[in-house]
């Protein structure tokens, strides 16, 4: 199977958008580990409609004008991984969940570590928002795109920074970890809240 890909410059580094037919199969980070997401042969196709549409929606997201994505997705993984990845899609913009909460959501409360491992192998970054999953005490845990980018995405969703503005000042020589500081307290942590409450608290508190 040959996958089509398109490269996209973004405030969080160069992203590789990957399609399987007319479905989005992956969004890979600039410095992604080669084996984190297993795909077949890749062929560059900048005009593939689903990739063009993905880039358009991502630009709107980074500009702060889009909170949800409307794309046909193709998750390739185990049944357990797919349950976790689909659970990520249910986390609302501006909210976070813990690994334990995701484990409860998929009906396996003892699978917290396995949830963490599946989260780390999420192939469709940003669109399937694995950046919204944090540690039980609110700490920002490991992230394939780097913790600086995780902070940037969470800050964007909390309305505390503009990645569009960051993009205009960021040079191509910068790596994702060299992104400019966000307008938030450096010692603040995302607020914890249970999904059943249905509230949308600030990710960094006020």
UniProtKB/TrEMBL annotation:
Main location group: cytoplasm
UniProt-listed Enzyme Commission number(s): 2.1.1.63
Biological process annotations from GO: DNA alkylation repair; methylation
One of the record's GO cellular component terms: cytoplasm
Ranges for domain Methylguanine DNA methyltransferase ribonuclease-like: 5-75
Subcellular location as annotated: Cytoplasm
Keywords: Cytoplasm, DNA damage, DNA repair, Methyltransferase, Transferase
Reaction(s) the record says it catalyses: a 4-O-methyl-thymidine in DNA + L-cysteinyl-[protein] = a thymidine in DNA + S-methyl-L-cysteinyl-[protein]; a 6-O-methyl-2'-deoxyguanosine in DNA + L-cysteinyl-[protein] = S-methyl-L-cysteinyl-[protein] + a 2'-deoxyguanosine in DNA
UniProt GO MF annotations: methylated-DNA-[protein]-cysteine S-methyltransferase activity
Start-end of Polar residues biased regions: 165-178, 197-206
Active-site positions on this chain: 130 (nucleophile)
Listed InterPro entries: MethylDNA_cys_MeTrfase_DNA-bd, MethylDNA_cys_MeTrfase_DNAb, MethylG_MeTrfase_N, MGMT, MGMT_N_sf, WH-like_DNA-bd_sf
Domain Methylated-DNA-[protein]-cysteine S-methyltransferase DNA binding: 79-158
Tree of life domain: Bacteria
General remark: This enzyme catalyzes only one turnover and therefore is not strictly catalytic. According to one definition, an enzyme is a biocatalyst that acts repeatedly and over many reaction cycles.
Similarity section: Belongs to the MGMT family.
NCBIfam families attached to this UniProt entry: ogt
Function field: Involved in the cellular defense against the biological effects of O6-methylguanine (O6-MeG) and O4-methylthymine (O4-MeT) in DNA. Repairs the methylated nucleobase in DNA by stoichiometrically transferring the methyl group to a cysteine residue in the enzyme. This is a suicide reaction: the enzyme is irreversibly inactivated.
Protein name (Swiss-Prot/TrEMBL): Methylated-DNA--protein-cysteine methyltransferase
Organism of provenance: Paraburkholderia panacisoli
């Amino acid at each position: 199977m040959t996958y089509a890909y398109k490269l996209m410059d973004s405030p969080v580094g160069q992203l590789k958008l990957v399609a399987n037919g007319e479905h989005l199969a992956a969004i890979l980070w600039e410095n992604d580990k080669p084996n984190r997401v297993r795909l077949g042969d890749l062929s560059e196709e900048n005009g593939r409609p689903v990739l063009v549409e993905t880039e358009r929606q991502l630009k709107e997201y980074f500009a702060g004008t889009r909170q949800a994505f409307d794309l046909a997705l193709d998750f390739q993984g185990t049944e357990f991984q797919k349950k976790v990845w689909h659970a990520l899609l249910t986390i609302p913009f501006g909210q976070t969940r813990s690994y334990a909460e995701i484990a409860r959501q998929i009906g396996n409360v003892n699978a917290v570590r396995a949830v963490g491992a599946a989260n780390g192998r999420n192939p469709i970054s940003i669109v399937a928002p694995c950046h919204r999953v944090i540690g039980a005490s609110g700490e920002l845990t490991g992230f394939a795109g780097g913790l600086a980018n995780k902070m940037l995405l969470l800050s964007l969703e909390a309305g505390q920074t503009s990645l569009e503005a960051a993009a205009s000042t960021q040079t191509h020589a910068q790596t994702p970890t060299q992104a400019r500081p966000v307008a938030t307290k450096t010692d603040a942590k995302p607020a914890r809240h249970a999904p059943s409450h249905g509230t949308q608290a600030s990710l960094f508190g006020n």
